[in-house]
Amino acid sequence: MAVTFSVIARDPVTGELGAGVASAVLAVGRAVPWATAGVGVAVTQSQTRRGYGSHGLAGIAAGLDPGDVLDTLLNRDSGALSRQVALLSADGEIAAHTGADCLPAAGHRIGPGYSVQGNMLTSENVLDAMAEAYAYTAAPLGERLIATLEAGERAGGDLRGRQSAALLVAAAEPAEDPGDGIPIDLRVDDSQDPIAELARLLRLQRAFETGDSAALATLTPAGPPDLLAIMGAARRGDLAGAKQALRELRQQPGWDAWLRENVRTGKLPYLAELLD
Question: 4-209 — its CATH code?
Answer without folding.
Answer: 3.60.20.10
